[in-house]
Amino acid sequence: MSDARISHISLDEATILWRNADIEQERRIAIFDLIEENTFRPVRSAEAGHGGPYRLSLAVHDGRLAMTIAADDGAELETLILGLGRFRRPIRDYFAICDSYYQAIRKATAAEIETIDMARRGIHNEAAELLLERLEGKVETDFATARRLFTLICVLHIRG
Asked: Is the pTM of this model over 0.85?
């Protein structure tokens, strides 16, 4: 297993005001899948000699995503700040389609659920591509890791 990976991830619980059981399940799955398999190499930290693995903490402050990166022993290495303006629409669209998806699971036909799920995956994929663009030159990562990170960014935006 490569050391250029996330070994632990945490979310700023003060940022998350509310989440329902469906969202909590999405959070748990994203974190589990992320820890099991990911590619994450912060460029500045790697150039400074830190090869990983890394601990990552995510928080949202003043409309910006703070990604605090630490060594596996907890020593803080750097904090990346990403403006979230370009993510507002994908986050809003993702919440809307997820809400439709969760409602459909409870009462729609299999074909309807599949259609909604395809739209949900499409929005999720576009947002992951956007995250990859925003991380370019800062963090080397892969598409699957970006998808899971986007899920966690969404969780941080739940306002109840």
From this structure: yes
